Amino acid sequence: MKLFDSHCHLDDKSYNRDLKGVLERAHSAGVDRLMTIGINKRTSEIAVSLARAHAGVWASVGVHPHDVKNCSESILQDLIGLTRNQEVRAWGEIGLDFNRMYSPREDQEKWFRKQLRVADRMNLPMIFHERDSSGRFLQMLKNNCGQKINGVVHCFSGTSQELAHYLDLGLHIGITGILTMKSRGAPLREMASQIPPDRLLVETDAPYLTPSPERHRHRRNEPAFVKSVLLKLAEVRQVDSEELAQTIWENTCRLYNLVEG
Fold first, then answer.
1. Between 73-82 and 105-122, two packed helices, what is the crossing angle to 10 degrees?
2. What does the pLDDT look like over 28-75, one tens digit per residue?
3. Tens of pLDDT along 213-226?
4. 15, HSE (Cβ side, Cα atoms, 13 Å)
5. Which fold has domain 3-255?
6. Of 163, 142, 148, 251, which is closest to residue 201 (Cα–Cα)?
7. 257 conformational bin, left if phi > 0, alpha if psi -120 to 50, beta if neither
8. Are β-strands 88-97 and 200-202 bridged in parallel, bridged antiparallel, or unpaired?
């Protein structure tokens, strides 16, 4: 079983002391590839450095909606420069978050629009973050990207109506450890079978959202635990886990323009 953790944050300080062990445990669990995510200039630079230093690690660059209050044209140019590294395979994590409002709505929309255009110009798939935008996220996607979009809605936890819209736009859907959580994951488990198999990705969002099988023993999530997400997804969809793993491996490699290997 080959697994691809399509979204994690290896730059997080919780990994500072044992990153080598984290990567070894991931490999032992069958996680042969993982995508470490940039959320601002600093973390994007770290993501690229980590990807260059470790086989099987790939990187994205971008500015998260929480961080866009500090964005600038020069930062965008620096991120564009980072994409010259072959290890950079996506732009993101970008989007809208009207829940915590760490950045003003005006800034979020301005820099989301600009990053959509940059990613399109760079021909990079996009990694999207959406929370409590009340339809504005979808509206901006449709207004700025056309009818089909190459990207993934990271950590999907929306409604069935939102899911249908995302699928109509051609987007992939990222499933996290939320799927394994008894109460919080119930709506997601109901929707999981509605997602076409060729649109599914699995992710940890590590060090956050530790799956239920591990959360009582580990305070910190890590890429190795993406296997628990895959196994739960196979159970919910009532399919063979090995076959589902292969399908999702192919989906993720295709999205990030990687040879399947």
1. 30
2. 999 999 999 999 999 999 999 999 999 999 999 999 999 999 999 999
3. 999 899 899 999 99
4. 22
5. TIM Barrel (3.20.20)
6. 251
7. left
8. unpaired
